[in-house]
Design brief:
Layout lengths: L1 H19 L4 H10 L3 H8 L8 E3 L6 E3 L21 H5 L17
Helix pairs in contact: 1-2, 1-3, 2-3
The structure holds zinc ion (ZN).
Zinc ion (ZN) binds next to loops.
Length: 108
């Protein structure tokens, strides 16, 4: 019985630490419960996902990882803001600005 209590609290601490680092509480709870102390230590040493670049959806202000190309909340298509040039820029003939992103048709 003592081990169950110990595992619970170790899981809890690992879960809280994992959650604070932007990861899933339940994943780290399980890791901490199965591997007391080691799991907690792993959660402490786990890289902080919140340090990764994030951006904000212009539509609903939802903050999400940079690599998301579609907003998880409102489903808005997001442009890739980084170094990798989007296809439409490569396809641009000269400097003529092209409205829309190709598939969005102008309103009739
Ligand atoms: Zn959104």
């Amino acid at each position: 019985m003592e081990f169950v209590v110990l595992a619970f609290f170790c899981g809890l601490s690992a879960g809280v630490i994992g959650k604070l680092k932007g990861s899933s509480f339940w994943i780290w709870f399980l890791v901490g419960a199965v591997l007391p102390l080691i799991g907690t230590l792993a959660a402490v040493l786990y890289r902080n996902e919140r340090e990764e670049p994030h951006r904000r959806c212009p539509e609903c202000n939802n903050v999400m990882p940079l690599h998301n190309q579609v907003c998880m909340r409102c489903g808005r298509d997001l442009d890739w803001p980084g170094e990798t040039p989007p296809e439409r820029e490569k396809a641009l003939p000269g400097a003529s600005p092209r409205p829309g992103r190709g598939r969005s048709e102008p309103l009739h």
